[in-house]
Write a structure and sequence with these properties.
This protein is α+β, with helices and mostly antiparallel strands. It has three domains: 209 residues, P-loop containing nucleotide triphosphate hydrolases (Rossmann fold), CATH 3.40.50; 99 residues, P-loop containing nucleotide triphosphate hydrolases (Rossmann fold), CATH 3.40.50; 128 residues, Alpha-Beta Plaits. It is built from 13 helices and 31 strands. It has an eight-stranded antiparallel sheet. A hairpin with a 4-residue loop joins strand 17 and strand 18. Helix 10 packs across helix 11. The radius of gyration is 25 Å and the shape is globular. Bound molecules: guanosine-5',3'-tetraphosphate. The site of guanosine-5',3'-tetraphosphate has 19 residues, from helix 2.
């Protein structure tokens, strides 16, 4: 196969949802179709059990298990599929954001009864920012839920994206009979069975055969619904989908394996193969011969006796090879890797080559930071790994004066791994750690002690948001920084960040300093 063919057949995507909507179940069914697993229940859930939320060591153990399942590659028909798993627990949302920088498209799972939930809304914001194509799977049709048209309205409104149903459900809950697949023009009948593939009859919606399958009443209703869809929604337009402006919607039940194959078949057909990636220097085309890739995730081994990490590299262009010299751009040094790993469904295996779209795992002893670039020689810096304003803040203080250096080093490395964000107050030099959830503070404290022998203490600070600021009016910017000097900090790259104590103070600042732009993520 040529390089171009290899890359074109790749589909790298993430499934995102609010916890419990059915992400794990859907992932498992997709793996079943790919023959990557043979029985249901074989996928270790990457979900963190609700009962374990206060015990983060337990969570880390579960996360440890999930390293192998955090990327699941498998072959389906002529396609190579890479599913990137995302942590279900919202305290690790930052991980999910970063994973989204490594995918070419996304499938969103929504529970038909619950509709769009908080975490889905937030993740969709990231997709919108990056213009990632999204497809939506409305799950749990075997249960009572909201009316299909209400769900479609809700999706459009809450996710701020135009939608186009590609299947139309026939009733729901106990009366659920299946869907009419508008993409393949077939009637897919529902059989509540966890292992069976849907019975699918190719049939035009006007065909009198429809009555034979679902009866007069439902046939009439279905024709009415399909007519309504055709009238109300724009015709499906692949360009609009690829540009992230239109989301195709499917209905089904992951648990009952209904609608999943249809989703997958349509997905491989219309979802994008690896897309060009913007670097600071230029746009990098995946089909270029030269290899390039970036680190989007670092997973630490929690065993203190083996302090090693795996750096996850998304291949952006060309072909990656084992034992080939590549340039670590930040170090300006050549490196080669003797045991890079591929992630094939559940097992990790050493790979010889990987192509644009694939994810490669590199064993790491502190050489990599999130965002690092590897290339065949060119100096490239990939953009698009934004930091978001954290939600929780604490001062970090040294609790063991003899170990100041270890603490410093530990904090630096953990921040490079992306565990949390560090802000240094410009006024008094105190260090502030920002996270999206309480758990990360515990993770940091534990890891500083066990991996670096350093002890830290947390002190409260009341902050609402950290905003990156910029302005074309340097005089106003200087004036702002002078007046707010107690609340100015530097982020890890030395950029100016304003620490707003409350929403009110932030709004006042925005009002008083009209030429300053306040950003809630670092990529603006
Ligand atoms: P998540 O990864 O998005 O958090 O969700 P997960 O797949 O774990 O699914 C959450 C719960 O919803 C699970 O039940 C799962 O069996 C159920 N579920 C998923 N898809 C469907 C569906 O199509 N119909 C129905 N009725 N239920 C569905 P659980 O009781 O929490 O877990 P388990 O004990 O069944 O594993």
């Amino acid at each position: 196969m040529t390089l171009k063919e290899e890359i074109q057949r790749r589909r790298t995507f993430a499934i995102i949802s609010h916890p419990d909507a059915g992400k794990t179940t859907l992932t498992e069914k997709l793996l079943l179709f790919g023959g990557a697993i043979h029985v249901a229940g074989a996928v270790k859930s990457n979900k963190i059990r609700k009962t374990a939320t206060s015990d983060w060591m337990e969570i880390e153990k579960q996360r440890g298990i999930s390293v192998a399942t955090s990327v699941m590659g498998f072959e389906y028909e002529d396609y190579k599929i890479n599913i990137l798993d995302t942590p279900g627990h919202q305290d690790f949302a930052e991980d999910t954001y970063r994973t989204l920088t490594a995918v070419d498209s996304v499938i969103i799972v929504v529970d038909v009864a619950k509709g769009v939930e908080a975490q889905t809304r937030k993740l969709m914001e990231v997709c919108r920012m990056r213009k990632t194509p999204v497809m939506i799977f409305v799950n749990k049709m075997d249960r009572e839920g909201k009316d299909a048209f209400d769900i479609l309205d809700e999706l459009e409104e809450e996710l701020q994206i135009a939608v186009r149903p590609l299947s139309c459900p026939i009733d729901m809950g106990e009366r659920f009979r299946g869907v009419y697949n508008l993409y393949h023009r077939s009637l897919d009948l529902y059989q509540p069975s966890k292992q069976m593939v849907t019975e699918s009859v190719h049939l035009e919606i006007a065909s009198p055969e429809l009555e034979k399958h679902i009866g007069d009443g439902l046939a009439k209703k279905l024709r009415g619904d399909v007519e309504l869809i055709t009238e109300v929604y724009p015709a499906f337009n692949r360009e609009a989908y690829l540009e992230g402006r239109l989301a195709p919607v499917f209905f089904g039940s992951a648990l009952n394996n209904f609608g999943v194959k249809e989703l997958l078949d349509c997905f491989v057909e219309i979802a994008p193969s690896p897309r060009p990636v913007q670097s600071e220097e230029r746009i990098v085309n995946p089909y270029e011969e030269a290899f390039s890739g970036f680190v989007f995730k670092i997973h630490a081994n929690m065993d203190p006796n083996h302090r090693s990490c795996i750096a996850f590299v998304k291949v952006c262009s060309g072909k990656f090879g084992r034992n080939v010299n590549y340039k670590h751009v930040r170090f300006n040094r050549l490196m080669k890797f003797s045991s890079p790993t591929a992630f094939m469904a559940q097992k990790k295996e050493v790979l010889d080559e990987a192509f644009a779209g694939d994810i490669v795992g590199l064993p790491d002893n502190g050489n990599f930071k999130i965002g690092d670039t590897l290339t065949s020689g060119e100096d490239l810096h990939f953009k698009g790994l934004p930091s978001f304003s954290p939600e929780m803040f604490k001062y970090i203080e040294n609790a063991d004066p003899m170990k100041a250096k270890q603490l410093q080093k530990g904090i630096e490395q953990l921040m490079d791994e992306g565990v949390a964000q560090l802000f240094t107050n410009q006024f008094n030099g105190r260090k502030i750690i920002g996270t999206v959830g309480q758990l990360q503070f515990e993770v940091i404290q534990y890891r500083l002690l066990h991996e670096y022998g350093a002890q830290c203490r947390w002190e409260p600070i009341h902050l609402y948001k950290a905003c990156w600021i910029e302005s074309d009016d340097t005089a106003e910017l200087d004036d702002f920084k002078k007046r707010k000097y107690q609340f100015m900090a530097h982020d890890k790259d030395g950029r100016d960040v304003f620490l707003a104590e409350s929403n009110y103070l932030l709004m006042m600042a925005q009002q008083d300093f009209k030429h300053i732009r306040f950003h809630f993520n670092s990529e603006f």
